[in-house]
Write a structure and sequence with these properties.
Helices cover 10% and strands 30% of the residues. By secondary structure, the chain is mostly beta strands. The chain has a seven-stranded antiparallel sheet with strand order 5-8-9-1-2-3-7. A two-stranded antiparallel sheet has the order 4-6. It binds zinc ion (ZN). Zinc ion binds at residues 67, 88, 96-97, 99, 102, 146.
Length: 178
């Protein structure tokens, strides 16, 4: 059974996989990281994103669809910069929001969002090489095929991590003592 202490201790471990999230050319300030820890019975997903757009009306929504996508590249066209991320990760051929890649949305706080949740919809191994996408709008968890969550504004490729990669400069300095 899940235990909060176990979850918090797991979050302190080196993640099994990580995605560095970068905004499209229209959102160059958008940056973030998603980490995946494989646990017994599911995956702990942790994400921190900065530079999200901020609504300017008196009741801004600031909620952003957040999904693992089927595609394996953060490339596309001028109109759709992450078109090659394709649709939601959906090995079970299910409708939205029963896709394996469907996740809780990001809730922005002055442009920053933190998310931590547990899911048994996929294992870390299954999503290695796939993409994680931040959408411009919230996910209504109803509309097909992707919750009417609007354009893809940021993308990252999920890559396996380990001590060796962790210490290489490409990850930047992530340990508390460096
Ligand atoms: Zn979906």
């Amino acid at each position: 059974m899940l235990d909060l202490n176990t979850i918090q201790n797991t979050a302190r471990r080196i993640p099994d996989a990580q995605a560095v999230i970068k905004g499209s050319s229209a959102y160059p300030q958008l940056r973030g990281t998603m980490r995946l820890h494989q646990m017994e019975g599911g995956v702990l997903v942790t994400a921190l994103v900065h530079g999200l757009p901020q609504g300017e009306d008196s009741c801004p929504v600031n909620i952003f669809g957040f999904h693992i996508h089927e595609g394996k590249a953060c490339t596309g066209t001028d109109q759709e910069p992450f078109a090659n991320a394709d649709g939601h990760f959906n090995p079970g051929n299910c409708p939205h929001p029963a896709h394996a890649g469907d996740m809780p949305p990001l809730f922005g706080n002055r442009g920053s969002a933190y998310l931590s949740f547990f899911t048994d919809r996929f294992t870390v191994s299954q999503v290695i090489g796939h993409t994680v996408i931040v959408h411009l709008h919230r996910d209504d968890f109803t509309t097909q095929p992707s919750g009417d969550s609007g354009p893809m504004i940021a993308c990252g490729i999920i890559e396996r991590t380990g001590w060796q990669q962790w210490q290489q400069p490409r990850w930047g300095c992530v340990m508390p003592n460096c």
